[in-house]
Amino acid sequence: MCGLAGYVGKGDKGILEKMTRSLKYRGPNDEGFFIQDGIGLGHQRLSIIDLSDRGRQPISNEDGTIKVVFNGEIYNFQELRKELIYKGHKFKSQTDSEVIVHQYEENGVDCFKKFNGMFAIAVWDSHQKKLILARDRYGQKPLYWTLINHILIFASEIKSILLHPLVKKELNHLAVYQYFSFDYVPQPQTIFKNIYKLTNGSFLVFENNQVSLNEYYKIEISEEKIDFQSSVENLGKLLENSVRKRLIADVPIGVFLSGGIDSSTIAYFAKKYKQDIKTFSIGFDEPSFDESSYAQQMAKYLKTEHYHQKFNSKDLLNIITSSIEPL
Q1: Suppose 19 and one of 5, 47, 96, 162 were both cysteines; which one would form an S-S bond, judging by CB atoms 3.0 to 4.6 Å apart?
Q2: Which residues are identified as catalytic?
Q3: Looking at residue 285, what DSSP letter applies?
Q4: Do the Cβ atoms of 29 and 57 come closer than 8 Å?
Q5: Are the C-beta atoms of residues 304 and 278 closer than 8 Å to each other?
Q6: Tens of pLDDT along 103-132?
Q7: CB of 16 within 8 A of CB of 36?
């Protein structure tokens, strides 16, 4: 989990640093900034792939004309990297973020269709003087934006946008109505007036002081008859492949075990491809809420390095308080 923030139009180093550092808990390992001619990009990094300084963001192409800040993971980055090297692109790091830079350089906004992953991306194209924001197919990684007096401001979290001096904290009455009706605020609305979620499977282009919103992916639902056994086999293959793709990292890998079927299945497939995975579980003093014994049984079966923590009601109150603080 990383954090990104920025603006196009009006801002300065102090504003950008303040916006970006409000997201430090999302990316405590490193920070980076790019400021030039009315464009500011900031990034807080949680290092997972290529832990060296070569992976610092904003990251650029060979001549520095394309800059990227990115939150998430591109699971097929190694395959895409090989294709790009074959086409003559030069890399300075082993990161998936640098693959984004060169994919954009090669394919423009069509690059987002090629990514298998979870992501929120900001691309500054200095050749065409435009900013592109993009979000993954299912909206797993957050990205918010607002446009004020032809100035675009964006960030991983709304609280970062609110730190820009041009942004007013005004309640969106429609969003309040939607929240009490549906128990959530449907995209692209947010609880604040004129601040929007970038919708999943879409990208935003800011060029010549104008915003255009574009869809690159849409879920297609079609009826398909399939027998039970084929469904079981297909689900197993898809799940195993999904877990395998998420095990690429230069840091230790862990699985949280709840004691249920879902996390146990994921841990099983993870252990199949990574022998040294760690597992974690929590338990509670109240027996009716505690399923940690099942988690510990699974950890024992898989022979993982297991860590368990039991909580009481006082512990939970402290955790809730510390969890609310970053919001």
Answers
A1: 5
A2: 2
A3: S
A4: no
A5: yes
A6: 999 999 999 999 999 999 999 999 999 999
A7: no
Closest listed residue to residue 66, CA positions, set 105, 24, 25, 11: 105
How many CA atoms lie within 13 Å of 73's alpha carbon, on the beta-carbon side? 16
Q: What residue spans define the domains of the chain? A: 3-215, 228-324
CATH code of 3-215, in short, is 3.60.20.10
H helix count then E strand count, the chain: 9, 15
Nearest to 44 by CA among 60, 56, 59: 56
Report the phi/psi class of residue 238: left, alpha or beta, with left for phi > 0 and alpha for psi in -120 to 50.
Answer: alpha
How far the first Cα of the chain sits from its last, in Å, is 15
Q: Provide the 10 A C-beta neighbour count for residue 327.
A: 7
Residue corresponding to tokens 């999904």: 242
For residue 46, what are the CA distances in angstroms to 24, 57, 318, 327? 9, 11, 25, 18
User: pLDDT band at residue 327, thresholds of 50, 70 and 90?
Assistant: low
Q: Which pair of tokens denotes residue 147?
A: 């446009």
Per the DSSP assignment, residues forming a β-bridge with 124 are: 67, 131
238 close to 226: Cβ distance less than 8 angstroms? no
String of DSSP letters for 90-147: --SS--HHHHHHHHHHHHGGGGGGG--EEEEEEEEETTTTEEEEEE-TT--S--EEEE
pLDDT digit string, tens, across residues 185-228: 999 999 999 999 999 999 999 999 999 999 999 988 888 788 89
pTM listed for this prediction:
0.93
Pick the CATH number of 228-324 from 3.20.20.450, 3.40.50.620, 3.30.420.10, 1.10.357.10: 3.40.50.620
Provide the token pair at 121: 């991306």
Say which residue the tokens 């190694």 belong to.
Answer: 78
Residue of 309 and 225 predicted with greater confidence = 309
> Which amino acid, 31?
E
